[in-house]
Amino acid sequence: MSSHASTVDPKKAELWDTHHHTHDVISTRTLGYFLYLLSDGMLFATLFAAYGVLSYQHSYFGGPTPAEFVKPWYTFAQTIALFLSVLAYGFGMNALKHKNKSGLINGMLAAFVLGVVFLVLDIHDMNHLYSMGITLASSGGMSAFIVLTQVHATHIFFGLIWILVMIAQVMTKGFTEETVGRLLTLRMFWHLQAVIWVFVYIFVYLWGYIS
Amino acid sequence: MSHGAADPTMHPEVQLSTSKGYFLGFAISAFLMLVATFLVTSHSVPPFGLLMVISVCAGIAVIAQIYFLLHIDISEHNIWNTVALVLFIPLFLITIGLTWWMFSQLYLRTMDMSVMSSAMQPAVHASATPGMAAMPGMNAHTDSGN
User: Fold this and answer.
1) Counting CB atoms within 10 angstroms of each CB, which of A103, B33, B48, B129 has the fewest?
2) Chain A within 8 Å of B63 (Cβ-Cβ)?
3) Could you tell me which of A86, A69, A79 has the C-alpha nearest to residue A125?
4) Whole-angstrom distance between the N-terminal and C-terminal Cα of chain B?
5) Who's near B100: CB < 8 A, 6+ residues apart?
6) In a domain, B35, yes or no
7) B66 vs chain A: nearest CA distance in angstroms?
8) A188, A34 Cβ separation under 8 angstroms
9) Can you count the helices (H) and strands (E) in chain A?
10) Helical spans, DSSP H, in A98-176
């Protein structure tokens, strides 16, 4: 009888351990967003591949190549602006760790301003190309160059909008599970732009300059 | 792991932020970009060696940023981000590498590069690219083509 009493009663059995574990909403969202960002990385893989196959000498159709218009130190200034923006956002997130709301907002504002500097330098560079008569239609090589660099710039543009939205949400809603989760996903997004920019800067701008 | 419900700023992904880590990520990658830019503009290294050196700069900078900025490591909390990234890298490299290899073989077998580079005939495409005629070196071709 004693062994019988210890058998599981199917009507009362708990098949799943539903206690002591709450759903970690923030971690679930950040992992999901990280997977999305990796698929964004595949978008850049296709654009890098397109640039790779369209950066032969014949790809430029006798027209200008990056070697003729890339100014390494100008683009280096862009690089530093973006890296500093990423650093400022990181400092802001460090302030979040200490529940320092004004520190977070100052960091995000600095990240926003430096991101704008990056974007203004990029737009100025594109206007310079346009004034030289270089457009998307100039050659296959120039199409690949402009599309790749401007898709990255578009990421920065939407990141800047996102930063403004998050500043407003932090000011109005404070540190809730939603806002903190969004700040973490924005941190991933913004920091990944610096990683992608390293590839763009080295393999498109600098390599284009020396080839 | 019932963190976050009471105070989301205590979530481990918030708490793993460190100013020192972010500054190191910035300093290492900015320094490597400075080195790469300096070498490229000084023309002191032959092109192929230069490509190798700046590729190494890019590789180290990316690893530093992934470690210090994206917090990709083997800690319990981030292990699935790391697994996803490790599985992503081959896809990224294969997409670029195979595409580049296929087209380089195609060009090798279908185009006479010496003809392509020296005696191109842009006249056929001149209407599609009106900006070309204004570029340096394009005038002779358009005149002869028409």
Assistant:
1) B48
2) no
3) A69
4) 75
5) A49, A52, A53
6) yes
7) 7
8) yes
9) 8, 0
10) 101-131, 140-173
CB pairs under 8 A between A and B: 206
In chain A, residues with a C-beta closer than 8 Å to the C-beta of B130 are 137
Kindly report whether the global pTM for this prediction surpasses the value 0.90. no
Establish if B140 belongs to a structural domain.
no
Structure tokens at A48: 């890098």
Domain-embedded: residue B122: no
How does pLDDT run along chain B (146 residues), one tens digit per residue?
444 457 899 998 899 889 999 999 999 999 999 999 999 999 888 888 999 999 999 999 999 999 999 999 888 888 999 999 999 999 999 999 999 999 999 999 998 766 555 545 444 444 444 444 444 444 444 443 33
Nearest-10 Cα torsion for A178, A183, A185, A189: 150
| Pairwise CB contact (< 8 Å): B19 & A61 | no
Q: Do B62 and A203 touch (CB under 8 A)?
A: no
Helix axes A140-173, A101-131, angle to 10 degrees: 160
Residue A161 has pLDDT above 90, yes or no: yes
- Residue A13 to chain B, least CA–CA distance (Å): 24
Q: At what angle do helices A140-173 and A25-53 cross, to 10 degrees?
A: 160
**B:26-45 residues touching chain A, CB 8 A cutoff:** 26, 29-30, 33-34, 36-37, 40-41
For residue B23, the chain A residues in CB contact (below 8 A) are 87, 90
User: Does domain A25-59+72-210 bear CATH number 1.10.490.10?
Assistant: no
Domain count along chain B = 1
Which residues span the domain enclosing B42?
Answer: 17-70
Give the ipTM of the model, two decimals please. 0.86
Q: Which residues of B touch A62 (CB under 8 A)?
A: 120, 122, 132, 137-138, 141
Diameter of chain B measured on Cα atoms? 77
* In a domain? residue B5: no
